[in-house]
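WARN no homologs supplied; continuing
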Amino acid sequence: MVSAWREGRRPSFQGALSSVRNAIDWAALYIPLVTEQDLEARDLLMLFLWSQAEGESFRDICRRRHRSRTTAMRRVNWALDHIVDGLNCDAEKASP
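OK structure emitted
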């Protein structure tokens, strides 16, 4: 996904591209897909990140999708909390 819209850019240090790809996979790794709401939260998180990277208004994206921005942000924050918890859990397992 990142390479599709940033094809001409070169990473500033060795391994930068693999780090970005790992970060993109965090949503798939740490957000459970038990309910339809979980899937929506993951999709909204990706849309939010895309809007931040491209400089587009998340409010406009929500309006076009007929979603409440405040509810969408609640779901984005929920998804981010799950990712943070998962990363912290992995870091605790990795530390001696």
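The chain is about 75% helix and 0% strand.
OK
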